[in-house]
């Protein structure tokens, strides 16, 4: 069986040809998309299908609400695995919560990560209420926190695409654009992983990332 899970693209034509070949092979491989990695300014953006709580990275991003009150989805899963020390810490340090489009750090309790960045994405209200700028800003603030905390790696879920209703294709475009622009501007952190729960979410992000490669 051909293993094309680990492939990496850089700015050379030859690497791009290899990437295209690997991508076609992965699609031929039962039609199931595999993990994808693309390099921007010496930093990797990686797409994987999986559970955000299982990631062994320096920082894990939570899809929180502005009260930092906990909830379902990513928020519920992270607090369940991390344990109650995380909610105790966020209640103590952030009694006012966190504004939409921003993020705040905490320890990570029983998670393998060192830190959790609680990011508040926008609720989708049709796209004319500043949602794209707020979503991009939530991702950017997490990357700034990653640099401030000297993180080598950070894992994001698809913020706002669950309970908050942001269309997956648009969220993929806006989040990946924000991350790519930050990496090109700042050159760190070295690894940014998007952890997508299902094949549809992974495919939506892979299409955007492939488009970024083709357009440069
Ligand atoms: N790992 C990775 N992705 C996950 C996981 C998980 N364990 N659980 C859910 N997801 C996916 C969802 O399928 C969705 O695509 O993460 C994405 C974000 O969904 P939500 O967690 O619902 O986050 P969001 O849309 O930002 O809504 C935030 O929901 O749980 C509440 O307290 C939270 O009020 C806040 C709101």
Summarize the structure.
With 216 residues, the chain is α/β, with parallel strands linked by helices.
Annotation keywords:
binds adenosine-5-diphosphoribose; 216 residues; single chain; eight-stranded mixed beta sheet; globular; Leucine Aminopeptidase, subunit E, domain 1; 8 strands; alpha/beta
Give an overview of the whole structure.
By secondary structure, this protein is α/β, with parallel strands linked by helices. The chain has a single domain (4-214), classed as Leucine Aminopeptidase, subunit E, domain 1. α1 (13-28) links the parallel β1 and β2. The chain is built from six helices and eight strands; from the N terminus they run βαβββααββαβαβα. Residues 1-31 have low confidence and may be disordered.
Topology:
Elements (H helix, E strand, L loop, with lengths): L7 E2 L3 H16 L7 E5 L2 E7 L9 E6 L8 H10 L1 H10 L9 E5 L7 E6 L10 H18 L4 E4 L11 H19 L4 E6 L2 H16 L2
Parallel strand pairs: 1-2, 3-8, 4-6, 4-7, 7-8
Antiparallel strand pairs: 2-3, 5-6
The site of adenosine-5-diphosphoribose has 26 residues, from strand 4 and helix 2.
């Amino acid at each position: 069986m051909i293993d094309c899970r680990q492939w990496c693209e850089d700015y050379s034509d030859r690497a791009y040809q290899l990437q295209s070949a690997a991508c076609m092979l992965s699609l031929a491989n039962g039609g199931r998309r595999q993990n994808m990695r693309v390099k921007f300014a010496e930093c990797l953006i990686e797409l994987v299908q999986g559970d955000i709580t299982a990631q062994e990275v320096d920082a894990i991003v939570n899809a929180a609400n502005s009260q930092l009150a906990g909830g379902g989805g990513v928020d519920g899963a992270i607090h369940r695995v991390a344990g109650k020390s995380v909610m105790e810490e966020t209640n103590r340090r952030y009694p006012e919560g966190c504004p939409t489009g921003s993020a705040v750090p905490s320890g990570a309790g029983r998670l393998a990560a060192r830190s959790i960045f609680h990011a508040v994405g926008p609720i989708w209200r049709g796209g004319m209420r500043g949602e794209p700028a707020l979503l991009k800003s939530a991702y950017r603030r997490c990357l700034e926190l990653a640099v401030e905390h000297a993180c080598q790696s950070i894992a994001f879920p698809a913020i706002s695409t669950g309970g908050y209703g942001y269309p997956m294709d648009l969220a993929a475009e806006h989040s990946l654009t924000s991350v790519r622009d930050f990496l090109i501007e700042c050159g760190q952190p070295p690894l940014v992983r998007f952890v997508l729960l299902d094949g549809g979410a992974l495919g939506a992000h892979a299409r955007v990332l492939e488009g970024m490669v083709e357009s440069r």
